[in-house]
Amino acid sequence: MSYKALKSGTDIRGFAADGFESEPLFLSDERVKNITLSFADFLTKKTGKSCGELKISVGHDSRVSAERIKSAVISALTSKGVSVFDCALASTPAMFMSVLDLKCDGAVQITASHHPWERNGLKFFTPEGGLEGEDISEILTMAESRNDEITADLSLVTAVDYMKDYAASLRKMIKDGVNADDYEMPLKGYKIIVDAGNGVGGFYANNVLAPLGANVEGSQFLEPDGMFPNHIPNPENADAMASVCAATVKAVADLGIIFDTDVDRAGCVDKNGEEINRNSLVALASAIALDGQSGVIVTDSVTSDGLREFIEAMGGEHYRYKRGYKNVINKQIELNNAGRFCPLAMETSGHAAFKENYYLDDGAYLMTKIVIYMAKNGGVQSIQKILSTLKQPKEAIELRFNIKCDDFKDYGAKVLDELVEYFDGKAGWQIADDNRDGIRVSADSENGDGWFLLRQSVHDPVMPFNAESNSVGGNMKIVKAFYEFIKDKSLLDLTAIENFIK
Q1: In angstroms, rounded to a whole number, what is the distance separating the alpha carbons of residues 20 and 24?
Q2: How confident is the model at residue 458 (pLDDT cuts 50, 70, 90)?
Q3: Cα 153–156–159 angle (5° rounding)?
């Protein structure tokens, strides 16, 4: 199996746990070492330094394969004379910050985000941020042809408790942001629980909130456990969200917070157990980021019409863009460089990047901004008041259609072109004027009172279909009308939509 098959957008991912050695996408020690050696060569080319002059930090999430992979990464780096800071258990955003604070040339984070326990991966940073997809391709191409002799030099390794420093920076951010009379205890009187899903995020309860006076009793799954025995650490997972909602109500907490495995994404829950997630979370983050100013908020393509109205009512401009957190972040950077103030780029998955924070998608930073807002404005009621103006759809659905041919990108593009032809000028339907990721079509009240979006997956032979309606029963009207277009596309697996309209 080619190394290039391990590429997942801007990350490297594969199977990694014991018992999966025969899996074609297994991240063996040899593969990990070759990829890491290639990252070191990538940095020498980028920085003009020799390997012996490089400093690279290394961290990992709680996965069962983390220690094995870390050992392979460190062996590869030190064999080339690279000085290594071993940050041990760490969040992905913290590993980027370690590059800046420890004056490193790069960082390696060992993580597979929300993927199952048997998976793992590698994520790379430079002082400019995470690598781009083409950088990953270059590294994997170099790794494919390597045959280096590895002799580790562990004298080049320095153990660093960087998460201690990272947590301290978040505490200072809260103390300065709230600026309470009791500066050292700005969260005294608040009860905030954290669900870390046995990933890395337990530090937020123990080392950020509690030292500032917050009562964190009722927090759950704070201990790292790479088998994730309680629920998938993923704010998009229904079971995970149901778990933190129930825990928040049971604890009689002001706020509940949930992180994904490596803490680059997050969601939260109000004291009534109501989710603040997806469109609601984007709305709240947008209000905080704009703070009465005009500016552009970049989101992914599947956000609701209600969110656009909310952002515009706040004095902002909603810029829908392609799915993929690097896509929305890169567009945010582009807009700011062009002189358009863009304080936030955010996906409905929970990735949120603030301009003020190095354009870094950091779930702990996002939750810290929300905690500050709550504490400054009299409690969670202030959050509920803001979100009360967000118009929520009555129905929402996502269906996925597998493409059954090798040239799936060309076929998907053809389907989208035909979709435009089919709905263009059709009574009761309107094609969006800002299609940047697939085709979005709005339906009037007679045809479903909402919208649908058909797009191509970035990497996979899949066409996801999203629809929302402002009326009960509206999605069925929208989906049935869409089915009349899609039903003769023989190279699409239409099982999902056919089951829906039965």
Answers
A1: 9
A2: confident
A3: 120
**Residue 248 contacts residue 257 (beta carbons within 8 Å):** no
CA angle 351, 353, 451 (to 5 degrees): 55
**Phi then psi dihedrals of residue 465, to 5 deg:** -125, 120
**Alpha carbon distances (Å) from 325 to 61, 350, 463:** 20, 9, 18
- Number of other CB atoms surrounding residue 64 within 10 Å: 16
Q: What secondary structure does DSSP assign to 215-255, as a single string?
A: B-TT-B--S--TT--SS-S-TT-HHHHHHHHHHHHHTT-SE
Closest by Cα among 289, 304, 283, 269 to 365? 289
Tokens (6 digits) for 45: 């080319």
The token pair that represents 26 in the structure block: 């297994």
- The pLDDT, as a whole number, for residue 271 is 95
Q: Quote the CA–CA distance of 438 and 124 in Å, as a whole number.
A: 29
What end-to-end distance do the CA atoms of the chain give, in Å?
41
CB-based burial label for 225 (10 Å; 0-12, 13-18, 19+): middle
Q: For 252-283, how does the pLDDT look when each residue is reduced to its tens digit (9 = 90+)?
A: 999 999 999 999 999 999 999 999 999 999 99
Closest CA to 370 of 304, 306, 287: 287
What the block records as the tokens of 15 is 């199977």
Task: Tell me which residue has tokens 């309209």.
Answer: 501
Structure tokens at 462: 């899949």
**Radius of gyration, alpha carbons of the chain:** 23
Question: From residue 24, how far is each of 19, 20, 458 by CA, in Å?
Answer: 13, 9, 22
On the question of pLDDT at 288 being above 90, the answer is: yes
Q: Which two tokens stand for residue 295?
A: 């500016």
Long-range contacts of 493-496 (CB under 8 A, 24+ apart): 493/401, 493/402, 493/403, 493/404, 494/401, 496/399, 496/400, 496/401
227 band by pLDDT with thresholds 50, 70 and 90: very high
Q: Which of 12, 10, 11, 9 is nearest to 27 (CA)?
A: 12
Residue corresponding to tokens 């936030």 = 344
The C-alpha angle with vertex 38 and arms to 35 and 42, in degrees rounded to 5, equals 135
What pLDDT is stored for residue 324 in this prediction?
87
Q: In what order do the strands lie in the sheet with 266-270?
A: 192-195, 255-259, 266-270, 275-276
